[in-house]
Amino acid sequence: MPKTEKGSVPEDPRRPLEIRIQVLATQAQALALQDVLGAAICGAELDHDGPCRVAWSTGVTTDLSTKDRKFLWKHLGQVETWDNTAVNESLGIVDEV
Predict the structure, then answer these.
(1) What is the pTM (predicted TM-score) of this model?
(2) Cα separation of 33 and 12, whole Å?
């Protein structure tokens, strides 16, 4: 790991980055997917003692512009997916309204 000066603390090579994942899903499915992604990124159960693999955070937003909504429907709407019941079952969603 590079050092800034002799005997100083090593410089942190990390930098803020963003990985974007856009989905066509119900809000409950998007929230459940956060847990799946979090477990994959962290490398452990979400509620665990000790450090995570990397520092991370997730969020779900429904506040998209009309342009972004149209773009996502155009590009993701044609993707073949499981039916909604199978998606909910796979994500552990019991009763979604």
Answers:
(1) 0.73
(2) 30
